[in-house]
Amino acid sequence: MIATKENKIAENSIISQMTTFNHEQLVFCQDNATGLKAIIAVHNTILGPALGGTRMWMYNNEAEALNDVLRLSRGMTYKNSLAGLNLGGGKAVIIGDARTQKNEALFRRFGKFVNSLAGKYITAEDVGISPQDMVWVNMETNHVAGLPGKSGDPSPVTAYGVYVGMKASAKQQFGNDSLAGKKIAVQGVGHVGQYLVEHLTKEGAEVYISDIQEATLKNIATKFGAKVIGLDEIYDLDMDIYAPCALGATINDDTLNRLKCSIIAGAANNQLKDEAIHGVEVMKKGIIYTPDFMLNAGGVINCYAEVKDLSAKWAMDKAEEIYKTTTTIIERSKKDNTPTYAIANQMAEERIEAIGKVKLPL
């Protein structure tokens, strides 16, 4: 086929986007028979095979899906590196409505695409994906983690990592790591958010919750005594800690002018809408931002334990190390007068660079 001018522009645009964050590979997946439309992004494999979940979301357009998978896969590289895991970073997105468009054939076809990468990418659950979906993927490839009956639901490990990182942030900001009496707003009380609320209420924090699912809100409020707050109202709450645990980009031009908190520490990915802008603004306001890709590493730690046949105790112990990593990042941020996200990036890149030298041929 003769390449048209439009095709060339589109091609250059995609390659340029990959080049910006030094992605290794993109796989575009399409299948008429099952309706599958997906993108797999492999960002970096220096530390090991790229591991990262698959997200199913009804994106407004393909460009939005591409931008999401590129950002998420890069985040996985840094997350795995900071967690000290021998894994690279990757991610996949399936374009579709997770409530109405799931079926066995679609996920098995997706599994074939994952398998075609021959272990370079290992997938797992993410937003919109259930354990059953991964079982279907596993019918076509062994490069899957987080399967039922193995390491199980990663949410408890993820929530624990967020919790200990939040405590480390509190120690840096308030002088001690107790969360008792602290006013904490948890935005999104899905699997991870629920476990986080449990940890916080057990310690005696005053917890506020918001979520798009009214039934879930009511259940969590009743179970743990948390107070329900409106979806938009949460940004105006006078609080000590803001914990975004839903989708990303909630720290932006609008919300930063409204947030009344001393710490931002949550499980959501890509919380800063623009790292270079909002990471600096957060620091200028005297707010400690605990980098999301470091804080929510418990999920990938759990998956790594499954891949390497390690115990559940090993996974929880590894997640507890997030406390020390959080402390190091915040202390370096203060010393260098550099945003915490940039320090976290530097630390992740330092490890990748060091291991890259080890792997160079003699």
Give a description of the structure.
The protein has 362 residues and is α/β, with parallel strands linked by helices. It folds into two domains: 5-71 and 88-138, Rossmann fold; 155-350, Rossmann fold. It has helices at 5-20, 62-82, 104-115, 131-138, 155-174, 191-203, 214-224, 253-256, 275-284, 292-295, 298-307, 312-320, 322-336, 340-358, and strands spanning 25-31, 36-44, 50-51, 54-57, 88-95, 121-122, 183-187, 206-210, 227-228, 241-244, 263-264, 288-289. Helix 2 (62-82) packs across helix 14 (340-358) and helix 5 packs across helix 6 (191-203). The N and C termini lie far apart (44 Å). The relative contact order is 0.12. The model is unreliable at 1-11 (pLDDT under 50).
Task: Sum this structure up briefly.
This protein has 362 residues and is of the alpha/beta class.
How would you describe this structure in keywords?
single chain, 362 residues, alpha/beta, Rossmann fold, 2 domains, 6-stranded mixed sheet, 6-stranded parallel sheet, 14 helices, 48% helix, globular, disordered N terminus
